[in-house]
Design goal:
The radius of gyration is 26 Å and the shape is elongated. It folds into two domains: 33 residues; 54 residues. The chain has 107 residues and is mainly α. Helices cover 86% and strands 0% of the residues.
Amino acid sequence: MRHKTESLLWNFYKQYRDASVSDWVSLGGWLAGLLFLIWLSFRIRSWLRDDEGPAASEHRMLSEMGKLHRQGDLSEEEYRFIKGQLVGKIDDIVREQEALEKQNDID
């Protein structure tokens, strides 16, 4: 595998070592396009995650903590403490969302 990689790099080097400005501009365009596609995929991914709502991560965390408690990895006291913290965060998020919705309805 290393031989193929070295060969590909050597071929790339040979192709572009005496390249004209237009070749470099073309290569730059391809790289810019690739970077744009990578950026776009991360943006789409974040938009899809935002659709879950802010409380979704706390719900997932609470579910995971429940699994750990059932498996015996968390004591009853630890589970109750963590559950109380997460439920409090979920309640705060829900209240904030309701307040924003009321404010948007008024506007």
